[in-house]
Please model this.
Amino acid sequence: MARVFVYGTLKKGQPNYKHMINTAKGLAKFQGRGRTVEKYPLVIAGKYNIPYMLNIPGTGHHVAGEIYSVDDQMLQFLDEFEGCPDMYQRTLMRIEVVEWEGKGSAGEARAGAEGVVECFVYSTMTYPPEWVGLPYHDSYDSSGKHGLSYVLRESRD
Model:
């Protein structure tokens, strides 16, 4: 099992969360909530209002999200879903645990108790330069105050 940190449309209550609970795509077990140890710019960009964490450490905010333990099948699905490696790149990042409810091996319990875990995160280094000038967010909600509603894939032109 691998740990994945999701900060956008795959979180609970967001438009693509359905994929995280679809066991036909693999297993994903919610472990807790966290935020990036380093600051990153989280922007909402493109004509479909997609959230992107730009891989520019030290800029932006500590980004909030959810920590999941996923099997190889789900990790492969997420790579495809996130357009990895073209649109997003999956990299390891340190995530500060805000709330831990992960049950499992003693190693998982210890990691949660220490306050920081390493997780795979889908961020991007392949973005138009003008995205750096967009507003930075510390958390993402598709129906947030920003007014930029996410456009589901099935609704795109």
Summary: Residues 72-81 form the longest helix (10 residues). The chain has three helices and seven strands. Strands lie at 2-6, 28-36, 42-45, 50-53, 64-70, 89-100, 116-123. The two ends are 36 Å apart (CA to CA).
